[in-house]
Amino acid sequence: MRDRHHPKTGALRLKLMAGAALCALPIWGIADLAEAQSQTQPQATTTTQANALQRGEDGLVPGSLYVEADQAERQGDIVTAKGGEADDRVFSRYQDYTLRAEDVQYDLKTGISTAAGQVELIAPDGTVLHASEIQLDKDMKTGIATDLATRTPQGATLMAASAVRRSENVSELNRVYFLPCPVCENDPKAKPGLSLTAEKAVQDENLRAITYRNVVVRFGDVPVFYTPYLAHPDPTVDRASGFLFPRFDYDEARGLSVEVPYLHVVSKSEDWLLSPRLNTSVPPFLNAQWRRRFNSGTIVARGGYTYAKNFGDFDLDNDGKAESNVNFGDRTSRSYILAHGEFDLQGPWRWGFTAERVSDKTLFDRYDVQNPYQDNGLYYGDRRRLISQLYAERQTERSYLSVAAFSIQSLRVSEFSPLTPALNEFESDNTLPLVAPIIDARWEPEGPILGGRLRLRGSAVALTRDAYVGYPTLRPEIVPPTVTADLPGIDSRRITGQVDWRRVFITRPGMRIEPFVDLRGDIYSVSDLPPFLGLDSETITRARTTAGVDVSYPLYRPFAGNGSIVLEPMAQLSISNEADMDRLIPIEGSQTLELDHISLFSTDRFPGYDLLEGGLRFTAGGRATVNWADGRSASLFIGRSFRDESERAFLVPVPDSPTELYDPSGLARRNSDWVVQGTFDPSDRVRGWFHAVMDGEGTLRRAEATISGDWGRRNSGALSYIVDSSNPLAGPLNRNYEFVQLAAQQFVYRNWGVTVRGIADLERDIITRSEVGLLYDDDCFRLEFGWRRDNTRVRPTGPSEGVFIRLNLVTFGGNGYDHTELR
Questions:
Q1: N or C end: fewer C-beta atoms under 10 angstroms in the chain?
Q2: Residues 346, 352, 357, CA angle at the centre, nearest 5°?
Q3: pLDDT on residue 720
Q4: What is the DSSP string of 568-580?
Q5: CA–CA distance from 671 to each of 602, 644, 674 (Å)?
Q6: What is the 3-state secondary structure (H, E, C) of 463-504?
Q7: Separation between Cα atoms, residue 453 and residue 403, nearest integer Å
Q8: What digits encode the pLDDT tens for the residues 545-589?
């Protein structure tokens, strides 16, 4: 083809359709251009068409090549396409790769292809490569590039003076600069927080790793680390075997500790994490984690082991004074396991398990095991309680069935020692039940029944205890004041059936009327009763019928500025037969109740089946919501319930005076506690929420409030308050509490800032946890370092304080695990 020139009013575009390739090293290159066919068109491609081509919407058939150029010619075996600068460069596409360059040349005889002059290549995954010149052989297995620069979709940048592709899988780069994260392009003063320079780098695609020689790591412009050798996974690797960042800390009892995690990737679906912790004052502790993904589910298992004596603050001389940080007892094996798995089978079934056990009730605290209390499985163990369970579930659009069995290990303190936390008394596991089985089932027939929604529910549970528990297994009035340490544990079984029907009517003015009927029957079997009751076992049956109506009337009024006010008064009237509160029915699932705007209007306000309400009840409340423009809003709910008779069965013994009773639920009297709840979002940067329960005299019994905000680009803070003052008497068993929690970060200069976190125990007038530190945060990493103190009542080694360092890295070879914390 000869050169063709077009008037300046519009350049001629040459389009070549080829039967083979234009492609790249892993992300660059020009390939085989054999048996080329060409055709010319006089008109220029529109901007919309060019954008479509760049998005991969070019419609090319497989193996086709698309080229646009101001000039194109062939002299012998050399095919040349030329363009101008900037947007007038040669434009070509092949297999979703996009290439721009001032000159593109292909030798039909040798198969060598060359692109030069502002070369830009965009790979299908969005990776962009820039170079002064690129040259490839006919098989695209070897090649050379000069002045190379590339950026991955994750934001990592790699530059090199030259690059040589020595084989299909190995590339070598010289005079390398690597930036693992993006730099703000809108800030001319922005500098990379973390960068790496090296004399040479080699990328092996089989190993999926990049190795460096003579490496200098820079923090900003300052070199902070040198090593003659460094390796990390290439950016395409989600997980790779190797050492992770170590974690340091200091504890007065353990001494200086260092934990060095090593990740071993077995396959794409399996890995191991070994984390030995070496301590200067106590024997080492080995942590390990195994993860495996199957076709239908996942298993994650953590564990730890050491062979050592106990340690902490002990009163060895029985003189009332605790010696600090001493070894105590015989050397023995100490370990833990935290495992869970979940599997989704074909169809509506799924099953899973958890296995959580620890040899010592303070092992997690002594060795600072990370995140030991997690919510996994069908049933959750609350904080400082571990749960091991096996369960299966079946769920469809109109039905649900779960069958499970579980046991509990408690790490809770039952009585705090006034001398030292190492002498705290813990809750006995023998007093906690083995739950096997526990069954829950629900079913709704399709279509309305009597014009409303019908729901059938069934539940069954069997509880077995090894040790005797007075209240709440027995009613307070039949618990003897004598010692009952040698009595057997009370076992119980329950079967419940329930029918719930509701129908909704909406009147023309907008009032919502919802009548309902609830029928429920329980069968209890209680055995191994204590001898002082005069019977060994008992079977108890009871039934309750409830009918009532819910009424609400939302009122809406808009006002100027795209705002509105919504008032929603609501009420419930219900009547039931008198509740059967047999004194032998154990209180298992209804020991705690949190009254809120939802539970206040529930037919069964207690979360379990043990306690139920009867008689005539009336509940009233109202919610007011104000909405302004830009998503700003505020809402307030106030409600209370009334009954015809008080219910003494809801009273429980005061822990420090068992002969006295009090009402933690707020439902025992004829008038319930007041429920006050609200939210406020005055702007998109400030959010708040509060919830409070008050008695009839206005005394605050329980409350919780949180306010959080953002200011500037990254500054933020949150303040929380929580209080429970329902227990009327002080004493060693009193569980009233009052806490304030603060967390905030404020940037002072560019990426530098300060951070503060703390929890204050207002009941005991101490700060239980506190941190103050300096913060550096950019797109590469987040670094915090400062001072911390832990003064919680369950730490067996007493208060602990020292320096902490936390480091989060971004895009520098992901490992799939939580952030590394150095302390």
A1: N
A2: 165
A3: 97
A4: EEEEEEEEEPPP-
A5: 16, 9, 9
A6: EECCECCCCCCCCHHHCCCCCCCCCECCEEEEEEEEEEEECC
A7: 25
A8: 999 999 999 999 998 878 899 999 999 999 999 989 888 999 988
Closest CA to 403 of 439, 441, 436, 377: 439
Q: Per-residue pLDDT tens for 599-610?
A: 999 999 999 999
By mean pLDDT, which of 150-154, 586-590, 723-727 is the weakest? 150-154
Q: How confident is the model at residue 191 (pLDDT cuts 50, 70, 90)?
A: low
* Of the ranges 214-218, 373-377, 392-396, the best mean pLDDT one: 392-396
List of residues 6+ apart from 29 with CB closer than 8 A: 23, 113, 121, 134, 136, 140, 143
- 3-state SS class at 813: coil
The answer to whether the beta carbons of residues 602 and 613 sit under 8 Å apart is no
CA atoms within 13 A on the CB side of 151: 8
CA angle 397, 401, 405 (to 5 degrees): 150
Q: 812: Cβ–Cβ under 8 A, 6 or more apart, which residues? A: 180, 194, 232, 780, 781
**60 Cβ neighbours under 8 A, 6+ residues apart:** 66, 93, 94
Q: How far apart are CA 18 and CA 145, in angstroms?
A: 24
With left for phi above 0 and alpha for psi between -120 and 50, is residue 478 left, alpha or beta? alpha
**pTM for the model:** 0.77
Measure the CA–CA gap between 94 and 84, rounded to whole angstroms. 21
How many CB atoms lie under 10 A from the CB of residue 591? 16
How far is 376 from 374, CA to CA, in rounded Å? Answer: 6
Cβ neighbour number for residue 801 with a 10 Å cutoff: 14
Q: Which tokens go with 235?
A: 């950016």
* 36-45, 260-269, 655-664, 690-699, range with the lowest pLDDT: 36-45
CA 228 to chain CA centroid, Å, is 39
In the chain the first and final C-alpha atoms are separated, in Å, by 70
